[in-house]
Structure formats: C-alpha cells, structure tokens
C-alpha cells in the first residue's frame, strides 16, 4: 500500500474550531491513511490525540495551544470533543481515540512497510503496544517511543 500520491492524503485534513482549538474533521480511516502517507514520505509530523482535558488546557494555555495548532492532526479522542465539534459546526465527527488509533496505525504501517515512533504517556503507550504486538504482529515496525510525563 503506497499512499504517497493519493489525493486524499496529500493535503492536511480539514480542521474545525472547538473553543479555539483546531480539531481534525475526518474519518478514522482518513486519519490512519494520512499517518501512513506521512511516514511513507518520511515527512516529520505529529498527531495530538485530544480528549476534552487537552482541549481545555490548550484553550487556557497559549504555549500548549501553539503545540496543538502545529500538529498535523488533532483527533477527537473523547466523545465530548467529537460531540462538541458536531454540535458547534452542525456536522458529525466520529471519535478517533488514541487507544484505537495506535494499533490501527501499527497494523497499517506493517502492511505498508513503514516504521512508527510514538510519543505518549508510559502506561498508555506501553500497554497498548504490548497488546498490539502480541495480538497483531510478528514483525512489528515499532522503532521507538519517547515516554513523557506532561507537567502543566
């Protein structure tokens, strides 16, 4: 699977404002495809997986908001974010949760022959990685993790 020339993933996905924070308005599969296309093009990028706490913190803190705004994508991790996006913009948005997105990206990366690197809180990242590796993959393309503890 080579997505580097697919028109659907060449441009940034559309975003819609949720209390001053730009949240990506796209399907779950479009987000997975975009991550893989970025990897295939070796284009540096990051994705913020935004539950309501991150959206509120980014609204309150300009430096955090700048980090979120610079992300290639900001997914609606929690149902409240997806519902708010839909309500504010009269559209629908499916929830794109990090705990679901991570194994999907890993599986797609393996099919595409891409490597992946995750930056996530330790317990979430490692637990999901281990479950994905055990259930879905014999030759994982997981090349690294930066484990952090965001202190605000």
Structural write-up:
- The protein has helices at 7-10, 28-40, 52-60, 62-70, 79-89, 98-112, 122-136; strands spanning 15-18, 21-24, 47-50, 73-76, 116-120, 142-147.
- By secondary structure, the protein is α/β, with parallel strands linked by helices.
- The strands form 3 sheets. Strands 1-2 form a two-stranded antiparallel sheet. It has a two-stranded parallel sheet with strand order 3-4.
- Helix 2 (28-40) crosses helix 6, helix 3 (52-60) packs across helix 4 and helix 6 (98-112) packs across helix 7 (122-136).
- The relative contact order is 0.16.
Structure described in brief:
The chain has 152 residues and is of the alpha/beta class. Helix content is 50%, strand content 18%. The chain has seven helices and six strands, in the order H-E-E-H-E-H-H-E-H-H-E-H-E.
